[in-house]
Amino acid sequence: EKAGYKHFMQKEIYEQPRAITDTIRGKYSLDDGMVYLTELEAIEDRLKVIERIQIVACGTSWHAGLVGKFLIEKFAKIPVEVDIASEYRYRNPIVDGKVLFIPISQSGETADTLAALRLAKSMGAVVVSICNVIGSSITRESDGTIYTHAGPEIGVASTKAFTTQLATLYLLGIYLAQLKGTLDKDERLRYIDALIKVPEDISSVLTLDEKIEELAKKFKESRNFLYLGRNINYPVALEGALKLKEISYIHAEGYPAGEMKHGPIALIDKNMPVFFIATDSHIYEKTLSNIEEVKARDGVVIAVATEGNNEILKKADYVIYVKKTVEETSIFTTTVVAQFFAYHCATLLGLDVDQPRNLAKSVTVE
Length: 366
Ligand code: F6R
Fold this sequence. Notes:
Blueprint: H1 8-14, H2 16-24, E1 28-29, E2 34-35, H3 44-48, E3 52-57, H4 59-76, E4 80-84, H5 85-88, E5 99-105, H6 111-122, E6 126-131, H7 137-140, E7 144-147, H8 160-180, H9 185-196, H10 198-206, H11 209-219, E8 224-229, H12 234-248, E9 251-256, E10 273-278, H13 284-295, E11 300-306, E12 318-322, H14 330-348
Parallel strand pairs: 3-4, 3-5, 5-6, 6-7, 8-9, 8-10, 10-11, 11-12
Antiparallel strand pairs: 1-2
The structure holds fructose -6-phosphate (F6R).
Fructose -6-phosphate binds next to helix 4 and helix 12.
């Protein structure tokens, strides 16, 4: 079952290049630089007139939604709100026929996400779900579904489901850009090309497994952790923190790096490790200043940075290098580093990563 791997989670981390290849297969053309989502053909006319998007999900799928906001707003210039399903369903969301409602769910059975879908649909929204389970409740109630092809995810901590959700949102962003005419052919080709390289980018991170295990040995006894990132990598910080808490039971918080000085900086001392996502981006210099602020207060810094960045070696205590990609696909490499780090902290502590305490794979009750 585990095909030679020690845990399902480990197997599923390693399956990500394959899972992403399967998820994007047949959905783009390099000849015309177009994304094809034939599953949305029947509702294309409704999608052409949407003015706003609401993404709703729980947990890791919500983090994917937060990344989706960056991608869709950047590519298609449509305003996107992202909500946690249990919040959305009990407030009074403003919905009409010009809203595209996107529930994201690995299982397709999450009770709060399903309830939020029903609410939005009853108010006239077009519903396009992103889901990993064919025929699940959420897909049955949607107007259209884009399936992630992660394959069954057994480990309770979501890994390949998350990265395939990211790949799907990326495709959806380009598709919506085509409907709205917001990206020209060259731009689309550039982004599609970057996405095609993602399986290879992730494979290169898989070779860092042992290196990240060595790092985890140094940190597994920590009781607290901060994860900081900016922009598209801020949700990756949230996801890294969630992975660490759910399987290693180490308390971790994710924050946008720029928020640090508005509170969390008070926590920094020599016992507070900070995991920075500091890959090359238009905002890298700002993140570097945040690293300096942590170091000035004796915090311990682990930085995930882009290959070739030597300067950061002088600032951070530990650096994990990932391949250079365009900013929009850096989320894949940085996510996998964070997955490995949590996985190793937990297994080194002797914990059951596939079935962490108190957690269920599918949350079908409120
Ligand atoms: C975390 C995790 C959960 C799920 C959440 C939503 O690793 O797996 O946070 O992401 O329960 O589940 P789905 O995506 O099935 O709706």
